[in-house]
Amino acid sequence: MRLAIPLALLVVLSQACGPDAQAVRPGPPQPAYGGRATIHLEALPKTLNYALETSAVTRRILYELNETLLTEDWNTLELVPNLCASFEVENPTSFVFHLRPGIVWHDGDPFDAHDVVFSALLYRNPKVNCDAKRAQYKRIVEISAPDPLTVRVRYDKPFFRALGSVGDMPILPAHLYEKPGASEDEQAEFINRNPHNHDWVGLGPYKLVSWDGDRIVAKRFDKYFAPERGGYLDELDWLYVKDDAAAFQALLNGEIDLFGRLSTEDYFGSATSSELFREKFFKAWAPSGAYGFVAWNLRRPRLQDVRVRRALAMAFDFEAFKKSVYRGLAVQMTGHGAPEGDFYDRKLAPLPFDPDGAKKLLAEAGWTDHDGNGRLDKDGEEFAIEVLSNSGNAVSETMLVAMQNDWSRIGVVLKPLLLDFNSAKERATKREFDGYLTGWALPTESDPEPTFHSKNASGPTQNFPGLADPEVDRLIEEGQVTLDRATRVLVWRELQHRLYELQPYLWGFSPPRKFAYSQKLHGVEFVRPDPNYVARRWYLPAGTQGTREKR
Amino acid sequence: MAELRTVLQCWRRRPLFWAALALVCALHALGAAAPLVANDAPLWLAAPGGARFPALEPLNACERFVLLLAPWILCTPLWAASSWRTRIGFGWPAFALVLALVWQLSAGARTFVPAGEWKRQLGAQSALFAPIPFGHSETNSSEPWRPPTWLAASEIDEQGHYVERNVMGHPGGLELPPSPVEVRAGEPARNAALRHPLGTDALGRDLAARVVWGARNSLAVGLASALFALVLGTLLGSLAGWRGARTDLVVSRAIELVLCFPVLFLVLLVVSVGSGGVSAVWTISGVLGLTGWTGVARLLRAEFLRLREAEFVLAARGLGFSEWRIVLRHALPNALAPVIVATSFFAGTAMLAESAISYLGAGLVEPEASLGGLVRGGTEHAWMVIFPGAVLALAVIAWNLLGEELRDLNDPRIPGRRA
Amino acid sequence: MNALLEVRGLSVSHARGARRFFAVEELDFDLAPGEVLAIVGESGCGKSTLLASIPRLFADAQSRIDSGSVRLAGRELVGLSEDELRPLRGAAIGFVFQDAHAALNPVLKVGAQVEEGLRAGGASTLELLAQAGLPDPARIAASYPHQLSGGMRQRALVALALAGRPQLLLADEPTSALDPVLGREILELLTGACRRQGMGLLLVTHDIGLALRHARRVAVMYAGRIVELAPAAELGARPRHPYTAALLAADPARTPRGKRFAAIPGAAPAPLERGAGCAFAPRCALARERCRIERPALVEGSACFFPDEVRP
Amino acid sequence: MAAYLRRRLAWLLPSFLGITLVVFLAVHLAPGDPALRESFDPDAGSADAADIERFRAEHLLDRPLAVQYLHFLGPFDLSPRGHRWFGGSGEHAFGGLLALDLGSEIHRPHVRIVDELGRRLAVTAPLTLAAALLAWGIAIPLGAWSAVRRGQKRERALALGLFALHSLPGFWLALLLVLAFGAAGLGWLPVLGLHSAGAEDLGWFEWLLDLLLHSILPVLALALGSLAYLTRQVRASMLEVLAQEYVITARSKGLSERVVIGRHALRNALLPAITLAALILPALVGGSVIVETIFGLPGMGRYAYEALLERDYAVIQAVTALSALVTLLALLAADVLYALADPRIRHG
Lengths: 551, 419, 312, 348
Hints:
- The complex is a heterotetramer of chains A (551), B (419), C (312) and D (348).
- Chain A has helices at 8-11, 56-65, 113-121, 131-138, 162-167, 174-177, 184-192, 244-253, 264-268, 275-280, 306-315, 318-326, 355-364, 394-408, 421-429, 449-452, 470-481, 485-502; strands at 36-41, 70-72, 79-81, 84-91, 94-99, 140-147, 150-155, 206-212, 215-220, 235-240, 258-259, 281-286, 290-296, 331-332, 377-378, 381-382, 384-390, 413-419, 435-441, 505-507, 509-510, 513-518.
- Chain A is built from 18 helices and 22 strands.
- Chain A is globular and about 80 Å long.
- Chain B has 419 residues and is mainly alpha-helical.
- Chain B folds into two domains: 2-106, no CATH class; 207-410, MetI-like fold (Orthogonal Bundle).
- Chain B has helices spanning 2-13, 15-32, 34-37, 61-74, 76-81, 85-106, 117-121, 165-168, 207-242, 245-260, 263-274, 280-308, 311-318, 323-359, 371-377, 382-410; strands at residues 44-45, 127-128.
- The N and C termini of chain D lie close together (8 Å).
- The longest helix of chain D is centred in the middle third of the chain and has 39 residues, at 204-242.
- Chains in contact: A-B, A-D, B-C, B-D, C-D.
- Chain B binds chain C through residues 415-416, and chain C through 16-17, 59-60.
């Protein structure tokens, strides 16, 4: 069912397209079973139990080790049955799933409706560490299993992502996680400290064999319920390498077969145009659905005036930055959402780069250079903005310096505050910043409520600006209950226009995810949804599998 | 001329020592005079109302004092070796005072001028630029990641394409056509060999300027933490060595406490808390000093324990000198030699520690430049790794060599080494 | 007469920085088997250098023998290579050092250090320690140098020197670090061993009284040269060099009670300032014009132009 | 000797507790809060205030610092599941440092810290030991040789070479090694991790060979740093010993130069080196963040640093307690070893 997405959709993004196959490869050899591939991880998952962990790395690994009720069709991006044979939408708030018979867990235990019900109910136990997902699944009012192969779910009120969130819900093996007759606390303890969070037992085409230190090894699961898409490779490894430069060296060395954090500089630069690279590797990119932004703290008086926020956006030379840092390979964002999805209006033009216009706007807002020292000031106070960010990301550091230079031309001083990840997050949560440079990684369609709705304006929420705009609230609530996809697209686009006009964020860029992978891998396609590749369709042509290349 | 002979004679006797001292002083002078060495604002500008010094105007009093120290530091080897000491001794302060007076007159209202702005507004006025005409934060989006310009691979034609295709060009045509290189007033020509002798970084900032200002910060950290460790170590070391067993016990336990403390953690703690007003250079020096004093303290304690029973100290007590007088006039000078040796070694170690911390992203990070931080920025490009690392190694070698020579100089036990 | 040791025209120089200087110049003397020759002189006159040059055991690697010959039992030592000379050390030439505390290895037991020097067929370690007058040799052998008293350490050093049953014994001020009583015992031990085993003993000391008491012949050195060489009795009774007379006058042990002993005015010239003429001239009461120009050679045991005018 | 030892041991415990207290205070007073964990889930929204409070309560982060420290120290478990005397359910009465129960990590409750420490030590300890042996194995002969040959041309060249080596920044050295021997350079050596993919199904010999190949560069990076320093230390103390009289006495016994240097000079020269050798112990436990990051080794250095970034208080305190204990023991061992080796002190 997983077909490669037509390249047309990608072309719209920029002039050229898809993977750059330097050498024209002879027709793909016949897929053959066997062989191994190693995939690079930029972070080590805390646990493989996706109910307790939210990191992108865990999600990527579980694509191969676990299955969900529904899955996103790579082509039409619609939800198609996966663990369930079929499903009915009785009314906007209740759904019935008919499970496929004969599905077994990796340890041979049969999969049935009870697993699904148990996986949904654990969010009601306050002591389980699934805080990030609790809000989403608390909306489920009732879930029941009339017989071992049917599950009935009912929501409190119509919600556009209802079907999606149930379909995407991580399914836990109840026979390993349920402690019969345990109290709520004991059950939570049993889940939080369950050894299977590390030695995961799932339903996917590959089952976990070993995980010590930085290397996770999975082998093909022979009793997978859909053998035709059960993966050709015998073994899939994931290897965690913290330092990107070291990982790239390991790729060249043959110790890694797919590296997903190629920098723009390396993608276009000498690293990937050397002889060694061209002969043995390919490079490619795919839309990442992630974008960077500076969130303005609307509680700070000087940033409450929308003219000031627009002026700051107009003073930053996005085009020059896009050309020097991204070499043109990035989308300048004009709203929240994944730029390739159809919920995002790509025709909304960004604010023009106009320093003089910006100065005029700031003057209107009362900021002029009264004492002639080259810096804008108002009522004796200089216009200085402290932008917080975490020091791990090289691109965000570069963007801060570029912003500092561009704004100094209109007399605005930017004081960068680069802290380690946790300190930065704590200050962001306590809203101790003027601007907060960070980013989102979003699926095709996401619920804007936690990020922009006024009820999340205060408290440790994702609504960093503390935006409280009735028009935005109305649009969000309307979109949430619009089940029809086409009308919902129009609602989200109207929301995007409204948000861009309010400028709670200085919207940055959405660079694509850039890959380098070994030519020995065949069947490698790059698709829209995270993680952008389908490891189970990779294969090594017969005769090259068993050979352990001499390192 | 007789003075010159004594200086040369002194240098010939201990060549390695004077070479090390000269290298250390030259590096620190370069760091102190960074505004004059690498600056985008012109040093001198012929203005209608009289000459202006745009490069020096934005400096505050403390930066100006450091700048004034530069010539004095540079001549330390000359000054220390010659019997001109008295003449040179008086000469320099006078010269510095004159310079300060002239300067004070010329300082206009300190207007804040954005990086590169002077070059844009220069127009026809004649101006003198620093040897490296680039500011440490002056970006040039038209030449990011440019290899050192003395390499053939770094040649760029008018449209901005690299002449040698394979270095930067991209067959897929995916990349936007680069804009032509923007050569601003006062800068060498586009393909001049010395335009970017060490290349540029992601934002087109000249690496040579970044290295000069990075060296300024790294050297400042090295020196400051060494002095901090010296003062703290001498204080606690002498207390432990001289006073009774009780203080000795307390100080030894404090030493053990510091030895067990994870240094990296303290730096992370302080940098994330203290990075408000004070620049990270001083917070890191403070931390390295706080954890580095144990070496000096242990050394001094051993020396003092030995000296406490030395005959001349008993004799001095016999003459009724006060305890403090004995310590200051007799014990300390004797113990000072090994302490100074340990301090110069620690200066090198502190710089290595700072660079390691900055490399991990916890110490001096953007936009402040530090030799360790620079390497972190471009591990995939040879010139971004080699040049900052080489300058750092050179500075550390200078300090260690100075320490080694100082040790041999003062070590009576090695026969025939008396200066 | 088959002399045990013949030294002819021996000159040895040391290096300080780039310049070299002569510590001893043209020394001539002989030593018969079983004979004890004392070498007396102020510190810095080159007596220790003389002793060290025989087995070539210089502390500083840059010192060397510039000229002259040293023949031990007829065999020339100066030209020998390091490998040829090494077997003679310990076996033919024994060395007794001044400060036993520094001369013994602090981390090795005394017995082990003596054993190192033993030659096959010789006396065992315990016998040697007993011969050196040490009570309970077994305990001494098993203990470390710092556990022994000064006297016992010196006796251990003597035992160590005698371990190889050498023909020639060189003793560099063996008793100056000890009190007089212990010193006398050590010296009697040394001279007794020489007589019994027919060894020659070169005894270096700064105490002329001690030299006269224990040695058959005495050589007086001044500024790197031998200024007088004569049998002990003769030298004591009628010194034929003003420096020897001055030394005798300055010896507290020989001055009758109540009489002030005379100190020698001035100081010995530093090695670099030894100009022409007799080195003692500036401090010599009998000095004349000739003494300042011409350097007196060692004639009939005295290197002075007016040996007879010397008043004891 | 025994009295000295007793006094030092008596002071060991208070020092150790003092250190754990200081680290505890520094950790809790530092900015950053473990409750604010990884990135928010982009789809579902953020943990709301109630969840964060529950997380803090579960790890006693909302209790006063003194209670938290006593809970960490033990022997009583003061959490809701802890000892009855302190209002706990009695289910897990004893815990904490003094009960040798380090508990489990804050962010990975299913991982017991003791097990993770074991895994991390299994990576760091052998590498550091190999590096130490390599460094000492070269430093002693090299130091002795350069002391004996002091002043000759070759020796001066070696001295300058060691100088440069000692002054190179650790990360720079590691990066250069990777560039030189990694795929981009000569391509002789693997640069990542301790095993290549699929190593577990190799024969034990290939497995061992694969391990050795992978550990050459890290060991080299670790050893080169300390090699230069150790060689100069041995050279300095050797020079000091060669100036002693007992070396001349040894020569006067006609012993060969090798015996004089080997038996007499070196034995005395290595005395101070013992204290340095004892300092290898903390390094065995501490590991090196730089080398482990660049070569991708899951060692102790990275474990502490990553816990630091995520403010995993349980792990930070466990790791610093372990390294503090080992450092204190090392310092004590250094003095004891020195006394045993030097008869002047042993037989006082």
